[in-house]
Amino acid sequence: CSNDEESPPNFPFTADPGFKIQSAGSTRVSEIVDLFFTDDFIELLVAQTNLYAMQSMNTRQLRRHSRLKAWKETDLAEMRVFLGLLLHMGTINLPSLEHYWKQDDLYYMPLFSGIMSRNRFQMLLRYLHFTNNEEDDGSPLYKLQSVLDHFNTVMSEIYTPNIDICIDESMMLWRGRLVFRQYIKNKKHKYGIKLYKLCESNGIVIKIRVYTGKTNEPNLRGAQTKYNHSTQIVMDLLQGYMDQGYKVYTDNFYNSVLLTKLLTERSTYICGTLRKNRKGNPKGLLCTKLKKGQLIAQRKNKVYVCNWKDKREVLCISNMHKPVLVPVTNKNNKVSMKPNVIKDYNEGMSGIDLSDQMLSYYSALRKTLFWYKKLSIHIFETYIHNACLIYNNQVRLPPQEKLDALSFKDKVVEHLLGEKFAKYKETSMKKRTTIETFHYLERQPPTQKKQKPTKPCRVCTKEKKRKETIYYCPICPKKPALCVENCFKKNHILLSN
């Protein structure tokens, strides 16, 4: 190692960052969403869901009155509606899935029952599948590999990140049994499935990798398996982004002198904290006692390792800095001196935290789902998170048309519901107009079999009473049969609410 000063390497940034899909004006919400929820991808969900339903029914004995006997194959239009309702559940948080279809005044949500029945939604959720079970290749992720590959492929095709990118892990809460469940004490969700993410500094998630245990590392796709676990992760996530002058920020779990050397050879900057026990660390830095605020650094070739003492000693590594102390202003407007490495690292690592924060809002994840379905829904929500940021970052988009996360998700749900939502709004409008119309009772018209036909009273049926009546309301939607006494009044009070 050397203490001689030398300028960092000069790697020109050659990528063309931003949204790759060009149009004359700004791209609409529906157009961006359809880049993720493509017809081909949804057709895959349809095919595998229908196949899994058939396989399940062929391998199990259904009870005589099982609702699963009513299963009918789904199609592209229905799957889009199902996804729309599933994502909308994250916007409106109710205690259980059944509550979205309750007729109780406290929970009444007519949109869900007006678009899809509860039983149909539950069957689609039960049989939702992403791959053929008969093609199990032994990989822990085979059940959702198609969803993960689709996300990574689409992001590489439609978006190029800006110069500052970061790598870190995030956790998806999972407390059930799972071979590769992790515990990380400093995360919000301490138990769960660990995801390695490559993010842009603004929070857009570029690439995702799921940790499935060290025993599965030989299955890494495109990674150089001759390196240790943390180095392999970085090299795998950066496939397609090296040799272009990117600035990568990582923490001490990943950083090492070897990794920095490898990325320097690939014209890629890297910066971050460093563990003291990493192989290749300069011993002189670790042996020197520092006073508070003191900074020392050593260089080997183009790699700088520095040690700075604040409340405790912090070891850093970088190939993009010549370590010096710079003034930094905190939230209380107090100025302190920190190494430029630490300053840029703190700013560069904000992307992961920002994406985790945004994804925690309006989440549709539920406790009762299998782990692979829960993780797939998390990836679907990452689609929407990315789409929202891409939409708002468009150069041609007028400032007044930018949308917050909730407004954007509402538009996504409307788009996925499609014609079903349009018909629901039309029916809902008719109901509102009928409330203002005078209602009355008429006799049921005679049929070929009966001169005075009767039908079950709607209100009595809801109250689990068996009672038939010869009267109905011709003004109400569906023209319900109603008893003369209290049922006519009860039905129209409910309609007005």
UniProtKB/TrEMBL annotation:
Domain of life: Eukaryota
Protein name per Swiss-Prot or TrEMBL: PiggyBac transposable element-derived protein domain-containing protein
Residue span, PiggyBac transposable element-derived protein domain: 34-387
Higher taxonomy: Eukaryota, Metazoa, Ecdysozoa, Arthropoda, Hexapoda
